[in-house]
Structure formats: structure tokens, C-alpha cells
Amino acid sequence: MLKLEGVCGGYGAAEVLRGFSLEVPPGQVTCLMGRNGAGKTSALRAIMGQLRLSGGSITLNGQPLRSLPAEEVPKAGIGYVPQGRRLFGPLSVQENLTIGLMTRGRGAGQLERVLSLFPRLRERLSQRASTLSGGEQQMLAIGRALCLEPSVLLLDEPSEGLQPSMVALIRDTVLRLKAEGVATVLVEQRAETVLALADQVGFVSNGAVAEVFPRAALMPDHPAFARWVGV
Question: What residue stretches are annotated with the ABC transporter domain (predicted)?
């Protein structure tokens, strides 16, 4: 289980997380929703060791993550797909995936698993990442994160700007990973996507999780959407 307890931190002198607490059970999809600037992306960056922390704890299956250098966090089994994807544009699809494999010493078997999830990447292994379409780049970003065989996958608005067929592919991939026991933390603003995927939804406001609901308690007209997201 991934657990954040009372996490505080920010950028320079600005505190953006103010007692952020969340439990992410294994094999479940946890969605984070909230207005822009609420702290959703900062929470993911805190997990990955990319945010200055001033308090609280972050653990994965009881192992403290807060003290790890940022480059060591993926080796603990956490994959991260940030907004903007951050691919190595001049490198090929194959080279981007190989970097993911090297993170935890995974080999051809894990690469084949990723290519089975995204067959289009197999067709473009020699193509430079920067020349892929937006949807293909998102496939590659997710595929690279999956190359380290994570137990937890963090996705920051992966469907943003994509056509419906790509959004559906990402949704199906998350559900397949869930069936395989991978926990996913998904930052998402589309209520319909959240309701199709989530096991639990955390509404984030002012740097903390204000409310958490199991999916069964949420309908499209639930007041929490208007209260915390404005939709």
C-alpha cells in the first residue's frame, strides 16, 4: 500500500501541500480531482521525491520513501507519467523504452508485455519519439513507466488533449493493469472517466485531501463534483 500521511511541502518558500493524507490500496484505481492549483500534481511530485517536503511521511508497503533521492524512487516500484510526458524526443521509441527497462533491470519479457499493451509502439520502435502523434507519445510515456514493472503507477491527466479513441485505450490499459494488481493514482478532471475507472475518489483542495468517496457512493450529479471541481 502507498500511504501519504500529513505531507507538507512546496516550492521555495511557498507551501502547496498542507497535511496531504491518502491511502492507495494495491490493485485499485485512486482518482484525484480538484481545481487547478489544488495540489494534485504536487502530491504526485512529492511521492516521486521531486518536491521539497517539510513534514509528514510517504511509505510504500511500510518502506519510507521520503528519505530516498528522486532517482531511487522508481527503483522502489513507482512509475510516473507526468503532464507533458517528458519523453527523450531525439531518441527512438526503442531507446525510450530501454531507459525504462534499465531503471529496475528488467529485460525482454517486460518489454514484450508493454508492446502487447501498445501494439502501435512495436510498429514504431525505430522512430524518433518527437515525431510521434500526441496519442502515440502518451502510449510511449505510459509504456516507459511500465517498463520498470511498477506496483504503483502515477498518471497526471493522461487523457488531456487526446482524441476519444486514445482516451479509451488509456482507460482500457488502466483497467487491465488493475486486473494484474497494479495500483494506479490518476489525476483526472473528466468526471465520466473518473466514474468509469475509480475505486475511490479523493477531492483535493488547498493542498490537502478534503473528502474521499468510494466509487459506489458517487453519481454524476453528486454535490462533491460541484463543491471541489466546479462541474
Answer: 2-231
CA distance 230 to 224: 9
Q: At what angle do helices 108-117 and 134-146 cross, to 10 degrees?
A: 140
Mean of all residue pLDDT scores within the chain: 94
Least confident of 29-38, 80-89, 123-132: 80-89
> What are 4's strand-pairing partners?
22, 58
Beta bridge partners of 59: 3, 64
Within 13 Å, how many C-alpha atoms sit on residue 138's CB side?
20
Residue 231's pLDDT band (cuts 50, 70, 90):
low
Domain parsing of the chain, residue ranges: 86-149
Question: What length does the chain have?
Answer: 231
Contact 121, 136 (CB under 8 A): yes
